[in-house]
Amino acid sequence: MESAPNAGMPGDVLVVEDDPIISLYFEDTILGFGARTVRTAANVARALELIAERAPDFALLDVALVRGEKTFAIAERLDALKVPFAFVTGYGADIRLPESLADKPRLTKPCSSETLEAALRNEL
């Protein structure tokens, strides 16, 4: 979906989330902040396809997807492309990230719109 751009807000955001209701919430909220485009993926393979088509300006990654799939391969690809991203998880601080990704921003679900906006503006 497309919206009007907002200064300081990434234009193209990738959301990797397997819960359709949460994904829709993130999409609507991010567009409301002024992002131009939000693309969504529910699994690692689709997210990597979207990144290969066009690298996003920012990505929001649910750590654990269905069937035990983790988004670490997506995070490593984004890191290599120097695309900022944040993990989002319902597991809080207990979730273990690979050492190479341990310093990346983490949001706890549910997260406030203020926290989400700060993450998108790289203020965390």
Automatic annotation (TrEMBL):
The modification 4-aspartylphosphate is found at D62. It comes from the Bacteria. One of its GO terms (biological process) is phosphorelay signal transduction system. Residues 12-124 form the Response regulatory domain. Keywords: Phosphoprotein. This is Response regulator receiver domain-containing protein. It comes from Bradyrhizobium macuxiense.
